[in-house]
Amino acid sequence: MRLKKTIPLFHSVRIRLLVMLAVLSLPLLIISLTQLNNYRRSLQEQDATIARIEATAARGILASWLENHTDAVARPSALSPAESDDLYRRLQQRLSPDTGTVIYVFDTSGKIVQNPASPGTSINLLDLPQAPGRWKWTDGVERMTMTRRIELYGWTVAVGVPLAENSVAGVSVIWLTATWAATLLASILLGVWAVGRFTKPLRKLVSSTSTLGDGNLHERVAVETKDEVGALAEGFNLMAGHLETKFNELQTQSAFIEEVMDGLPLGVLVLDKSLIVRKANPMFARALGRDVEALTGRGLYEAAAGLAVLSDVVEDVRRTRKPFVTYGLPLNLVPRKSEEGSERFEPNFWDITIWPTTERSASRGDLILILSEVSKRVRAERLATAAFAAERERAAELESVINQMNEGVIIIDRHGRYKINPAAAEIMGRHRSEFRDGAEALIEDFVLRNLEGRGLPLHDSPLYRALRLRESISGERVRVVRPDGEMRVIAISATPLTGEQGDADGAVAVFRDTTEEVRQHDELVGAYDRLREHDRLKSAFVSNVTHELRTPLNVIIGLCQLLQRDHQLPLAPLQTEAVVRMERNARSLLELVNDLLDYSRLEAGRSALHLERFEVASVVKEIVDDYIAEIKSKKIILKTEISPELGPVLMDRYKLSQVLSNLVGNAIKFTAAGMVTIASRPVDEERWCLEVSDTGIGISRDALAYIFDEFRQVDDRLARSYGGTGLGLAITRKIVELMEGEISVESMPAEGSHFRITWPRTVRQRTGTGSLVEKEVPAASIVDLRSRAL
What we know:
Largest sheet: 6 strands, antiparallel
Number of strands: 23
Number of helices: 21
Helix content: 40-55%
Strand content: 15-25%
Structural class: alpha+beta
Distance between the termini: 34 Å
């Protein structure tokens, strides 16, 4: 079950788009509120202006009236009601009486001149505002009020103008505010819906991309739109479908190869250029009394110590690239003791074929060793030879034994008389009574041909050579033509017999029908050719599929970068986050594809070495700088111990960086807290070692057996918790072996791990197939692999 990645709330595209919508709406809100405030201020200024105009007009009317009533200035208290009524009537008629404007007049002492229409009004002149201002009058209505004093007479007039907010214009401001608020709420709800509609397919695509990155090749994403997001989803589904199809084909081919190897009746062992067992079928494992898994990865002489006697032959085959075939070789693959504890025992006998491959590589194999136990046959041949060399008195017993043998036996005495057992007659396709008398006639009745199908002259017949030329023939293969026209292949051994006086006493021949063995050998050679072709197709497939995957991934990454760098149409912050996330996931898939391509090149032997002389400390510093951010985030202590005595080394700098990066990356990944140590020091004058240690979760003892296998991880739970494809250590081991190194690991659960690699100070140059070359590549011609474009 895949763990769903939790996205922080603020990192959600939906939340960010909503925040962006709110931020974009904020200036509109501020502008609207500012306009409403300005409108209210304009209404207040309008009220103040009207109050000033009304007050100025009232002062003029009052001044005109006082000019005509000079006696009222001297005695304001004696002003009659008729005069007061006349005064206020003039003021109200001249100053818009229908607008609700209120006017009061004060004499020189500040006492109000009573209006007959509203007697008993009491207002303090000092309470009224001198400049235009809001003031509540005696009728409870708040008006814009202003006073004007006539300096010549000392009288004052106060005018109260109705406020505009209480008019139709004021009510319209309230309706405008309510309408704006409703419109804003509707736009927010519409924005929330639109954001959800836009981000939903993106979130599904991001989730499906993460699932595919975790190795679930069945993942597909629903295409819900026909825009660019829908096209991206269709491209993702197409890429995932191709990837799943190619991997299924690879698994089918691997299963077929395994079935062919396991079904062979012969023991088959595939060795690489270092004589390391790369493949052993169950028949070979049973011959050694071991499991197939226990043989894989071991040296030839470690897996089968008895084959050490063939070390010179093996080296000769590797050097000359010519196959070696032998029959009936006494050999014990695994040393064993007798019941008395003695090392002496009767060996088994084997037909052995050592076949060099056409293309030598660490992954495909360099040699194929084919074994077939023939102990019964060899013992029968020896028994037949000893029986024919015995005295004639034992002829009956010898004939009985020979007649019971499965191998064909022919015994010829000195007089040319012969005996032939039933097995020989059956192999020849005749009855014993059908053969003519005499050794010469018998040899002629054996219609023999060589393996190419050409007829053998009489003097080249194995029986004739043993009988007349006194040659010993062992396991010579010829073809015999039976009377029905069928051609069979036999392996014949012939030995001349010597009498007691050392004179010729005849000959004995033992042969067996090897037609099925030859057919099986031909089938094996054909199967090997098919296996080699399947292996080539597998490597070509991995290489092709990785190239096919890198093309759309590079397009996705390029489009993401193009969107980020478009200054004419810049992305919004949330769109930028979505594009960055898509680019990050595409790069994760690209790293997986690059790992597959690197492993395919190493497995196919197409990864050449580019040697240069450099200091190990500089490579260690580059790797430490690459992981410094992750080290600080996890608060891990990184310690380096580079011995100053090491000096420069001659090897592939990029491959050393790749190995060190894999080991340091794993150490940091599986270490939650503690220390990671990188150490290098000389071992002797010819070798040096590199060590990476950590205090992380460690590795169980069972997992150490397959930790360097491809696509294998210690635990499925680690694959879900920490991620990864299981290729890092497999690539590391192949690179170490390519540069003639040895890698080992020591680890205990919860105590950490310790990886140790031993390398020669000077690595020998190799070609693309991994074979040694004589001339060292100059340092000036070495190309830095890291500078090559993908």
